[in-house]
Amino acid sequence: MRSLRILPIAAATALSALAFTPLASAEETRTNLGPVGPYEPILATIGDKRLIAYYAPDGDTCEVSAVVFDAAPSGGDHTSARVRVSLHPGELLHLDNVWQQSAVLTCAPNAGMLTVLNKRELLTPAANVN
């Protein structure tokens, strides 16, 4: 009987904590360089471009879908490019921009995860400046 009273109190406490948590501003850029599981997003900035990538396992391979688009606050010219590729474990996918900056994705054995290999390069502030 006591546990039935605690559950609503815990739920109310959790909801009130969420209500007073500051939301990220629209100008903040989220980053997730992995590793990620199937259908979870990789989020990265490559110079003045944004990358969203995910994969679906197909046997031992990672079926990767990646979209690259302009990250300018004005939205740039609103063009985007989609790349789809099948990666075997250990194979690399290089997504480069015109300034020789890149994100390097790789597939883990048994299509267990997808990750960005050059995390340090992408997290360096200088890497995000053209």
Termini separation? 62 Å
Strand arrangement across the biggest beta sheet: 1-2-3-4
Question: What's the SSE pattern?
Answer: HEEEEEEEH
**Can you give the helix content as a percent range?**
10-25%
Descriptive account of the structure:
The structure is a single chain. With 130 residues, the chain is an alpha+beta fold. The protein is built from 2 helices and 7 strands. The chain has a single domain, classed as Sandwich (Tick-borne Encephalitis virus Glycoprotein, domain 1). A hairpin with a 5-residue loop joins strand 5 (92-96) and strand 6 (102-107). Residues 1-27 and 126-130 have low confidence and may be disordered.
In short:
The protein is an alpha+beta fold and 130 residues long.
Which descriptors apply to this entry?
four-stranded antiparallel sheet; alpha+beta; disordered N terminus; disordered C terminus
What order do the helices and strands come in, and which of them pair?
Blueprint (H helix, E strand, L loop, with lengths): L1 H18 L22 E5 L2 E10 L2 E10 L9 E8 L4 E5 L5 E6 L6 E3 L2 H5 L7
